[in-house]
Amino acid sequence: MRFIEIYVSYGGLLMMLKGDPSYITQFELDQKLFLLMRKL
Q1: What is the pTM of this model?
Q2: Cβ neighbours around 1 below 10 Å, total
Q3: Distance CA 29, CA 32 (A)
Q4: Any residues with CB less than 8 A from the CB of 35 and at least 6 apart, and which?
Q5: Domain residue spans in the chain?
């Protein structure tokens, strides 16, 4: 199975998204993304 990686920067916090190409290709350059985090 093939995966694609993209990197998203949140003002110093760098996040890598890895997934199936059919989902990842829906992201656009300079698109606003929201990050939800929960402390465990």
Answers
A1: 0.60
A2: 3
A3: 9
A4: 8, 10, 13, 15
A5: 1-40
B/e letters for 2-40, b = 16+ CB within 10 Å, e = fewer, are eeeeeeeeeeeeeeeeeeeeeeeeeeeeeeeeeeeeeee
Q: Are 8 and 33 in contact (CB under 8 A)?
A: yes
Amino acid at 6: I
- Tens digits of pLDDT across the chain (40 residues): 789 999 988 888 898 989 998 888 888 888 888 888 899 8
